[in-house]
C-alpha cells in the first residue's frame, strides 16, 4: 500500500508516520517544504521537498501521487498571520492543487485534515454532529480558510464521485514533540519557550467562562486517519478526546488551585493589541474560535472507525506544557502540517 502524506514533517504528519511504521507492506511517501532529519519516524519515508503553493506544484504533485492508494493532505500555514494572502496561497490554493493533482493521478482515496475551526458558531453545552454548518468563524483567518476548503471538498465530491473523500475535524492537536513548534507559532520567537510553562505556577487562572474547547493527542488523530485509510471510510469525522476543556478542567490539569472569570472582550483586546504590536504571534481570531465553535460529538468516529482516544484531553494538555518547560521539539524545527 502506497500512502502519500502532504505535510508529513509536521505535527500530525509526524504522528501519522509513527502510526504507520509497524504496518506491514506500507510504502510511505512524505511531501514537505523542507526535508526533515533522518531520524525515526522520518527515516521510514521517501521524501519529496515540495511547496504546494509553488507554480510547479500541480505537475510535481501529480507525479508524486501516481500509483498512490491514498493521499493524506495535512499541509497548512499558521504564520505569517499578518499576511493572510501568503497563508491562503498554501491553505486554500494549496488544498485545491492537492485535490486536483490527486484526481488527475487517479488516486482512489483522499483524506484531508479539516478542523473544529471549520464549524460555524455553535453551542458549548450540547454536542453537534458532522452535519453542523461549516461556515467558519469569519473573524478568524483559520476559520475562513477551513470553511473555504470545506466548500472546495464539497465541489470535489460532486466532480469526482468515484474518489472516496474523507474529512477529519479534530479539536486542538497536542503532542510533546511539537511543543517548541507550537510555542513559536502561537507565542512567537521572542518569548522564551520554557517561560510558557510557568503558567503552572499561577495561583489563579483567569479565563473567560465561554472559553471551552476540545483537544486530542496527535497520536490519536493519526490513528483515526489510519483507520479511515484501512476502511476506505468516506465523509466527515469529528475527532476529540474527553473531557471538554473549560477553565476549571484546564486549571485542574495544570495544577492551578482555582480559576477566576475574565471578560472575553478584555482578553480579546489584550491579544489584539499585543498581536498588532508584534509582541506575540496569536491574532484575536483564535479567541473568537475558542469561544464560538461548538462542542463536537465523536459518536460517528467511534461507531464507523472503531476509534477511541487513548490519551485524555487533560493529559495531552499537561504533557504539552511539561514539554514547553524543557523546550522539547525536533531539530531542525519543521513547519507544522495542520
TrEMBL record:
The lineage of its organism: Bacteria, Bacillati, Actinomycetota, Actinomycetes, Micrococcales. Residues 3-240 form the NAD-dependent epimerase/dehydratase domain. This is NAD-dependent epimerase/dehydratase family protein. PANTHER family: BIFUNCTIONAL POLYMYXIN RESISTANCE PROTEIN ARNA, NAD(P)-BINDING DOMAIN-CONTAINING PROTEIN. InterPro entries: Epimerase_deHydtase (IPR001509), Lipid_A_modif_metabolic_enz (IPR050177), NAD(P)-bd_dom_sf (IPR036291).
Amino acid at each position: 500500500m502506497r500512502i502519500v502524506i502532504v505535510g508529513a514533517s509536521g505535527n500530525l504528519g509526524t504522528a501519522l508516520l509513527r502510526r504507520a511504521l509497524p504496518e506491514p507492506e506500507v510504502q510511505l511517501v512524505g511531501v514537505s517544504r523542507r526535508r526533515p532529519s533522518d531520524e525515526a519516524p522520518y527515516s521510514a519515508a521517501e521524501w519529496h521537498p515540495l511547496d504546494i503553493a509553488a507554480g510547479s506544484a500541480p505537475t510535481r504533485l501529480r507525479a508524486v501521487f501516481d500509483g498512490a492508494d491514498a493521499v493524506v493532505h495535512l499541509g497548512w500555514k499558521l504564520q505569517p498571520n499578518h499576511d493572510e494572502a501568503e497563508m491562503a496561497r498554501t491553505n486554500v490554493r494549496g488544498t485545491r492543487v492537492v485535490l486536483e493533482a490527486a484526481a488527475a493521478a487517479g488516486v482512489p482515496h483522499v483524506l484531508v485534515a479539516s478542523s473544529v475551526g471549520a464549524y460555524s458558531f455553535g453551542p458549548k453545552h450540547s454536542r453537534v454532529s458532522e452535519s453542523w454548518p461549516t461556515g467558519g468563524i469569519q473573524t478568524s483567518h483559520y476559520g475562513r480558510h477551513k470553511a473555504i476548503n470545506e466548500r472546495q471538498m464539497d465541489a470535489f465530491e460532486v466532480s469526482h464521485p468515484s474518489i472516496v473523500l474523507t474529512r477529519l475535524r479534530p479539536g486542538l492537536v497536542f503532542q510533546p514533540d511539537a511543543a517548541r513548534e507550537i510555542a513559536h507559532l502561537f507565542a512567537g520567537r521572542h518569548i522564551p519557550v520554557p517561560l510558557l510553562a510557568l503558567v503552572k505556577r499561577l495561583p489563579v487562572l483567569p479565563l473567560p467562562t465561554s472559553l471551552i474547547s476540545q483537544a486530542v493527542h496527535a497520536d490519536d488523530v493519526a490513528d483515526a486517519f489510519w483507520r479511515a485509510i484501512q476502511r476506505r471510510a468516506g465523509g466527515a469525522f469529528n475527532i476529540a478526546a474527553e473531557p471538554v476543556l473549560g477553565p476549571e478542567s484546564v486549571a485542574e490539569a495544570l495544577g492551578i488551585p482555582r480559576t477566576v472569570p475574565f471578560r472575553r472582550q478584555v482578553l480579546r483586546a489584550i491579544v489584539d493589541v499585543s498581536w498588532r504590536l508584534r509582541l506575540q504571534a496569536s491574532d484575536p481570531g483564535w479567541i473568537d474560535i475558542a469561544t464560538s465553535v461548538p462542542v463536537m460529538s465523536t459518536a460517528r468516529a467511534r461507531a464507523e472507525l472503531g476509534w477511541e482516544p487513548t490519551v485524555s484531553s487533560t493529559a495531552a494538555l499537561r504533557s504539552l506544557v511539561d514539554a514547553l518547560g524543557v523546550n522539547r521539539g525536533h531539530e531542525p524545527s519543521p513547519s507544522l502540517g495542520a
